[in-house]
UniProtKB/TrEMBL annotation:
GO terms for biological process: DNA-templated transcription initiation. GO terms for molecular function: DNA binding; sigma factor activity. Belongs to the sigma-70 factor family. ECF subfamily. Residues 16-82, 116-165 form the RNA polymerase sigma-70 region domain. The keyword Cell division does not apply. Keywords: DNA-binding, Sigma factor, Transcription, Transcription regulation. The keyword DNA-binding applies. Gene3D superfamilies: 1.10.1740.10, Winged helix-like DNA-binding domain superfamily/Winged helix DNA-binding domain. This is Sigma-70 family RNA polymerase sigma factor. InterPro entries: RNA_pol_sigma-70-like, RNA_pol_sigma-70_dom, RNA_pol_sigma70_r2, RNA_pol_sigma70_r4, RNA_pol_sigma_r2, RNA_pol_sigma_r3/r4-like, WH-like_DNA-bd_sf.
């Protein structure tokens, strides 16, 4: 460990890895981690060992005690991360069951909208459907139809005015 700390000796690090990796994996699996998680802990511990080699002090602890302490901390961090509660803002609320009256009202509105759309000319209905049901921009409609942009905008505007007139007063 001193050669890793003092000279960043990769061969010495490889020997440390070969010696401690199987022991750390076994420690993780005894602690209840799966094989993949235990291997992830081993990788993280050995990376920290390399990055923090300058912090190792042989007067304070043995190499094994220092490495196992890093591993225990890493496993505790992993458990905390797994069992962290989800903030309430991120919880998706359960959708309430649709009320029968709401379903009937929605069906009636849909029927009214279909009837109003059928009252439009074919050119207006096609462009309104492309813009609002197909969610296409005016430029995309122009590409698809080859119509001038002014014509597209006029037909959509006139179609919406007609729809507004057809649907006026039909909402409860």
């Amino acid at each position: 460990m001193l050669r890793v700390r003092d000279a960043r000796d990769k061969a010495a690090f490889a020997r440390l890895f070969d010696h401690y990796a199987p022991r750390l994996k076994a420690m993780g699996m005894r602690a209840g981690l799966g094989a993949a998680q235990a291997e992830e802990v081993v990788q993280d511990v050995m990376l920290k060992l390399w990055d923090r080699a300058a912090q190792f002090d042989p007067d304070r602890a043995q190499v094994s005690a220092w490495i196992y302490q890093i591993a225990r901390n890493q496993m505790a961090d992993l458990r905390r991360k797994e069992f962290r509660p989800v903030p309430e803002a991120l919880l998706t609320p359960e959708e309430p069951e649709p009320d029968a009256a709401q379903a009937v009202a929605l069906e009636q509105e849909t029927t009214r909208l279909r009837k109003a759309l059928s009252a439009l000319s074919d050119e207006q209905r096609q462009l309104v459907e492309m813009a609002y049901l197909g969610e296409l921009s005016h430029a995309q409609i122009k590409e698809g139809t080859g119509l001038p942009l002014g014509t597209i905008k006029s037909r959509i505007r006139l179609g919406l005015d007609r729809l507004r007139h057809e649907l006026k007063g039909t909402r409860p």
